[in-house]
Amino acid sequence: MTHIAFLGTGLLGSALAEAAVKRGDHVTVWNRTAHKARALEAFGARVADSPADAVRDASRVHLVLKDDAVVDEVIASLRPGLAANTIIVDHTTTQPALTAERSRRLNDEGVKYLHCPVFIGPAVARESGGTILAAGPRALFDAIHADLAKMAARVEYFGERPDLAAVFKLCGNAFIVGINAVVADVFAVAAGSRVNAPDCQRVSGAWNRESRAAAPAPAAAPPSAVDPAIAVTVAPTTAASASPSNAPRCFPRPQPACSPRTCTTSAGPA
Fold first, then answer.
1. Can you give the pTM of this predicted structure?
2. Three-state DSSP class for 107?
3. Domain spans, the chain
4. What is the pLDDT of residues 175-233, one digit of tens each?
5. Which residue among 135, 141, 142, 260 is buried most deeply as judged by most CB within 10 Å?
């Protein structure tokens, strides 16, 4: 039975910990707000009184925290209990430049640290679905790749440049926010023109033959659904699609990392 620790048991952290217990891992949890951690006792997790206590004898330590400042604070608190061979797996959405500095500093000091942000919601985490991104020392990734593959349907390794998982996590968050905004604009235009919102998918038929063949005929929205005050300006956008794969993929190394001035943490699922 593998002994692992989860520090940070909010919505996502608790779901990941619950799934780990159900897979048969021996799980210790810690959270600054203790009652959130204690809710996991019902599943068989042990609740620790401090970060240092939580990580003792653990082979992996998973962090699911708020931001860079909290990550640094918690790592400083857990280090007295951390064994030399224990790997810290940080799932927190963090700023690329700060992530790179943290990874280099900790690994230089002998602390095994790998940044692994996720595209996983709580419900999906309980089913071991979603995607885990990873960047940092290849040896650390290889050591835990099989364990990460048990946590998610897909694992993407971006190479040894330590900020890349953070960069692509923020890019993904931007896509998600942007696509949602575009869909909202499309539905608003439809409502203002007395068209049922779902019928707007037919517009994709202009460039997508399969969509054109499958889409239903358009129908006018009932007058009660129309808001004549709606006025919307739609900005052009592009979206990229990714091919599904259960195997980790290595990506080319981009040019030097962006600075904190141009890369900021946006609200995301992790």
1. 0.74
2. helix
3. 3-164, 170-225
4. 999 999 988 888 888 888 888 877 887 776 665 655 555 555 545 545 444 443 433 33
5. 135
